[in-house]
Amino acid sequence: MKRNSRLSLALHTLGHMAGDPDEIRTSADIAEHAGTNPVVVRRVLGKLREADILTSEKGHAGGWRLARQPDEITLADVYLALDESLIATTADEEKPNCSIEQALHSKVTSVMEEIERSLIERLRATTIADVR
User: What is the pTM for the complete model shown?
Assistant: First the structure.
């Protein structure tokens, strides 16, 4: 997993939060620890808030905390909340004129979709508490 990916940042942050689920962490603290910018942290963690994985509080004493217990958050929850995918979107691509290219594209897409489903199934079997 790339060290600068959204998924890596999210899982790393959630892993630390699992150690003390009630502690509030600021975007600045998370960013400093992760070696990134607080704006990047807020964008990534905002997606997790939308998926009810995190909550956030504004203000001087505000920050981020887990919305659920670490054993109730699967790696699939995080992966899906961030709209991660192994398959590049092809909605804007033109259909190939070559029948071989069409067949190849169809087969590869089918295999990649199967791999994606399998990955999500496997991620569902592991919680944030499991990797703590």
Answer: 0.84
